[in-house]
Each structure stands twice: as structure tokens, then as C-alpha cells.
Amino acid sequence: MATSAPLIESGLLKKLDRLAIQTRRAMAGDLQGERRSPRRGASVEFADFRPYTSGDDIRQIDWNLYARMERVFLKLFVAEEELHVHLLVDTSASMDWGTPNKLRYAKQVAAAFGYIALANLDRVSVTAFAAGAGTAQLPGVRGKRGAVPLFNFLQQLPTGQSGDLTKSCHRYIQSARTPGPLLLCSDLLDAGWKDALSALASRPFEITVMHILAPQELEPELDGDFRLTDSEGGPAIEVSADLDLLRRYHEHLVGWQAEIERFCNGRGIGYLSVDTAVPIEEFVLGRMRRRGVLR
Fold first, then answer.
1. Are residues 153 and 61 located together in one domain of the fold?
2. Of residues 2 and 130, which shows the higher confidence score?
3. pLDDT computed for residue 38 by the predictor
4. Count of structural domains within the chain
5. Cβ neighbours, 10 Å, residue 203
6. Can you tell me whether residue 214 is helix, strand or coil?
7. 3-state DSSP: the chain helix, strand, coil percent, rounded to 5?
8. How far, in Å, are 65, 72, 218, 251, 260 from residue 257 at the CA level?
9. Would you call 172 helix, strand, or coil by DSSP?
10. CATH number of the domain that 206 lies in?
11. Is 267 found in the same domain as 125?
């Protein structure tokens, strides 16, 4: 779905400046940023002492402690280093559907998450995948100057045809070896979703799945006879919609979402069900913060 409307309005961008990505564990990055690292380095936050050894920087000696103990110790500080934030966007044909459109909403979520990372001096890369359109990638960008290429890349992403989530995730773990937060935006309408998530979980990413569905999928309003066509090339199905069919559909949907959430919880993966009817600002500032994805 192509549209010239900005993914993130300027008013929301100002609010995103005050947020940060919530990580469950410290991760060592490459450059100095605004994230705690498990390493010791130079920053303003004290971490520990260690005895002085020949060749150490004498400027780090704690002379007050020396006066009390008559032993020389160095002050250690928490190193603040960047994270590598991974954004994965499903651009298969099934995502280009619904009102509001699922693919546009996925782009908005990815744009907001990526902007927050850039505002905190973290590095962001984006990978979009669908069989028909192939794989599109934005290499790592950093700092607020990276917001423009990030937004432009997401805005211009085309819709693919049939997707293969499993193959895409397996390819990704072979090429992306830097640990860090990983956000997957997908409707998970792929029979191999378990294998795909297992592949991502086999690497030291901190994964959050944004399970994006349109309101027409969550609460379909159908009545009478219909011919359903598969946007990714599957066979058409004739259905007669009545109250009993809608009840069974809803039960299956709720059970499917619960199964995905249990699967994710068992592998340390965060899971958020997403209704595209919820305004993007409300979702990001409200639900993503309440669920501990952002702070």
C-alpha cells in the first residue's frame, strides 16, 4: 500500500523523544551510546572499584579511598554503548489488507520503534521480506540523522506476493549476528510461524512480536454466501456466513492468538496482539509502554 501521508506525525515524534526501548538484559554494542553495557568503561555512573595495577590511568585513582585505606584503587564506571536494533517487517500480500491497512500500520510501528532507538543513539537496521518482492534491507543507521532514511525506506516498501516467513527468518539469522532488540511486525498468516519464531529465538536477540490484524479479521461482519480468495495464491473457498460460523471463527481466532502467546512466552519472546483500529499514538504511548516494550 503506497501513500504519501507521513508514517509518524510531528506531534507524536516529539513525544517519542522522551521514550526509550526497555531491554531485559545488558548487551555490549560497538560504539558509545546511551545504553548500559556489561563492560566497564568511562561514563558518569559509578560501578565499582578495583586495585591499581602498573600502567593504569592514574586519573581514575580514588584518592579519598587511598587516604582512608592507604591502598590505591581505581574507580570503574558503567560503559554506555549503543544497541543494534533489528526491525523485521512482513510485506507479504496478506499484510496489504484491511481498514486501517495492516502493512501501513506495521510500517508505523517499526518507524516509531526505530525512531526511539535513533533518538537514544542506538543503531537501527530494517529488513522487509516477501517472496514476490524479495528481501529489502536498510543497513544500520544511527542517530537522529538516520530518521529520514529510516522513514523513507519504510514508506517506499512495496507489497510482495506469497511469503515464506520461515525461510526469511532462517536467512536473517545467518546474516544478522549482532545481538540486540528485534521487533517482528507480521500477521503470522503462515503455517510455518512456529519454525520462524524458533529460528529467531536461536540467536541472542531480545524479540518482540507485533501480531498485526485488521478489525475485519478480529470481528468480521459477514452474512450470507461468500467466495473467499487467498491473496497469496491459494484456492478460493465458498462459505455461508451465519451466527454459528462467526462464533466458531472467533473461538478459533482467540485460540490461535493464545497459542502464539504461549509459544512466545515459553521462549522468552514478547508478544503483543495488534488491532489496526487502535490509533498508532495510543498503541505506542499506551500499550507498548504498559507491556514493558518501551519506557
1. no
2. 130
3. 41
4. 2
5. 17
6. coil
7. 35, 30, 35
8. 57, 59, 11, 10, 5
9. helix
10. 3.40.50.410
11. yes
Q: Which residue has the higher pLDDT, 152 or 2?
A: 152
> Do 122 and 268 reside in the same domain of the chain?
yes
Segment holding 7, helix H or strand E: none
For the record, the C-alpha cell of 172 comes out as 536473517
C-alpha cell belonging to residue 163: 511469503
Q: Mean pLDDT for the chain?
A: 85
For residue 184, give the 3-state DSSP assignment. strand
Q: What is the pLDDT of residues 5-52, one digit of tens each?
A: 899 999 999 999 999 999 875 544 444 444 544 444 444 555 566 677
Residue 94 belongs to domain spanning:
10-26+83-290
DSSP state string for 229-293: --TTSPPPEEEEE-HHHHHHHHHHHHHHHHHHHHHHHTTT-EEEEEETTS-HHHIIIIIHHHTTS
* Judgement on whether residues 255 and 153 belong to the same structural domain of the protein: yes
Among 202, 216, 163, smallest CA distance to 185 is for: 163
pLDDT over 70 (residue 165): yes
